[in-house]
Fold this protein.
Amino acid sequence: LQVILQLVYIRILAGLLSEEDFGIMAIALIVVGVVEIFAQVGIGPSVVQYANLEPKHVASAWWFSASLGALFFAAMFVAAPEIALHYDEPILRPVLRWISLSFVISGFSVVSRSLLIRKMNFKALTGCALAGMIVGNLGVGLIMAWNGAGVWAYVSALLVQNAVLSIGYLVLARIPVHLGFRISRVSQLVGYGLRSTAFNLLTYAAAKVDVWLVGEKMSTGQTGIYDRAVHLMGQPITVLGKLGDSVLFSGMSSIQDDLGQMKQITLRATHLVALFTMPLAAGLVLQAEGVTWLFLGEKFAEAAAVAQVLFVAIVFRALTKLSDANLRALDGLRVGILIKLLFFASIGGGVFVALEQGYGLVGAGWAVVAASSLQWLLSTLWVMVRLNMRITELFASLQSGMILGTIAILTMIV
């Protein structure tokens, strides 16, 4: 439901905003997204993963995250003019200052959200997410875009959506704030949290470095086109990312001492993800032009060639989400950090070379595909070793998806 609503929102927005508006927002979200990872130092994942969590841990984590949110908002408010000057886009200054309010909003609610994930209360999480999208995106965002607000429609939708989400989290998962702040409790969470922060930072940086390099090397309009193609590729991964980041991470954390059960869950999940993503990716690659026209409109027709290449990466990215859930639940984050570092370097280096050699946005897309396949291979090897998984077992879990993907390709070609 979230993906459907998001696609409807982006499709309508694409007809109301310019390529430059999307380019400005893409740059702003990259900057804010990187800072936001530091703003919480992994407190949220620590609350989910920590085996001996007590109310005093929860209260201390809330005071800590709320303080960090306010601190990082102030830092971004001061830094915004310099960032705008770097990109020679004056409008970035107010845009960054307003978007950075999300640091404060998430600072108040991240612990509540993590408690809901830990308790696997996904009914509540889904309700909050849908309410935020309907009120923020479909309500405020589209109304403002229709009235000519330009990039501010996107900004306002994002802030309202985050506010609605946070209110829902806080109401549904109450925090015992009266227990106050205890540094000893926070220190028990921060060790894992810092490793999680490094892991998430590299994950985010690798996912955004291609857009950033395009923004550095090409025009704002071209950046907007590439960003929309990346966004289309990311929608199926968003669904499976929520599966990995929430359901599998919390579930596997609760059984982290039972490797046999984790192995069976991983194989079943791999089977289901392959069964879904392989035929989906095949269909999207073959129908990329129509899909781009349907969800972005004629204005973004140039994005079709880029999207066609990026759709190949869907399978690799989706399956990697399962490995990431294992890495996080078993605290294999040191190895995970190394894998993400190699992924970041390969995707950044590949896109840089593609743009320098004149291969354009399509060349950048192929660099993303190559780096994504490398990341999947490395992370899967770690899971196989850690869970004592044989290659025949892995192949068996992928086999049905491969057959269904082949059938999908043959059907569409014929």
About this structure: Residues 183-217 form the longest helix (35 residues). The chain has a mean pLDDT of 87. The chain has 17 helices and no strands. The two ends are 32 Å apart (CA to CA).
